[in-house]
User: Fold this.
Amino acid sequence: MAATGSAVGLGNLWKFPYIAGENGGGAFVLVYLLCILMLGIPVMVAEVMLGRRGRQSPIRTMAALTREAGVGKFWNGIGWLGVVAGLLILSYYSVIAGWALAYIPDMTQGLFQGANAEQVKMRFDALRADRNGLIYYQSIFMLLTTGVVVFGVSRGLGVAVRLLMPLLFLILVALLVFAWQQGDFARGFEFMFHFNFEALTGESVLVALGHSFFTLSLGMGSIMAYGAYMPQQASIGKTVLMVGGLDTLVALMAGLAIFPIVFAHPGLEPSAGPELLFISLPIAFGNMVGGVLFGTVFFILVTIAAWTSAISLIEPGVAWLIENKGFNRFTANLLLALIAWVLGLGTVLSFNDWSEYTVFGFTFFDGMDFLTSRIMLPTTGLLIAVFVAWVMPRVLSKDELNGEGSVAYCLWFWMLRWVCPLGIALVLVYGLYDTFSS
Ligand code: PHE
Assistant:
């Protein structure tokens, strides 16, 4: 349940639709699905397995397992890369979650009632330009994330996932119905599932790969940290397939709710970028029966989904500070949240005061996203695959996964040994080349 809470978040509701829109739809969606199935799922099994075998924070788990495998310290880097990536992601994740928070009062006040695309865009532009407002909401979100320690991670997460995820699912169904009736559903559907391979570049394949890791919370220790708490008799394979399936379903539903609305409203573009969710769905809520209630609940749920993910972004670092540096949970959380908050100011400013400053065409926010999703997560994923399938003695993974059946084990091992390293390396090299040569 905690892994589902980590996986389902802004990545599904906010990021997937907008990057699908920016990368031309159909062919991108197909590549993304292939990445999930062929690279994400096997790496996720490996990550959970490592965590359960190590039963400590990712950094110490990797140190213990490299010792057990009798290999050099190089592989400890997997744990470290993860902690750093987690903080970098959290820094901008909290700013975007702040946008969702800011929309809650707007929704309750019925600000979007009867609104058209123009009006919603104006509201969003005002939000983005308001530096202090953004900092205010980012800070509230950070406090919420840190506050979870007061109630204990498991209880808070349990309620959030068991009760609120089904509710989020229901609202998405309601939005789908609206998109079906009032939007241009046929065009939205075609945009997502018509494979126009001409739109596909090396760069967009890299975006798809990076996002498959981002959305499954892979390559940064979150899933490893949660694997450490997993009961020995639970099936890793079944759990991973369920989490991956639910995560993909939520992302596709979000896309199918958003694109029909986009196509039905002149002035909206699928390639609008990070604001896509925030300018398309308010139109739906503003023009449906019960929209004030639905819209309020929706943005509360988006915030909660982001919150259960944010907790997992910070957990690897927190666990390490507690085990190695003698921190208690509260101060460890506070310290890391503070670091992420300060870094997050760069993202806030990149939407207003610093929007003109770019390096290689990247604003601060783009740069953070590029560095984490497109470079760090796939690199760590690659290292995990190589470590488990080539470096670690095979008996260890066999022992940990002995409940999964030998056919499933062999298939997984083969994927992890050949398909994952080659696939990830190929996309990384080609994608980076394509990004910087254009
Ligand atoms: N998977 C989360 C999402 O889709 C984001 C995340 C990435 C969480 C990496 C933890 C680790 O929103």
In short: The chain has one domain: 2-437. The chain has a mean pLDDT of 93.
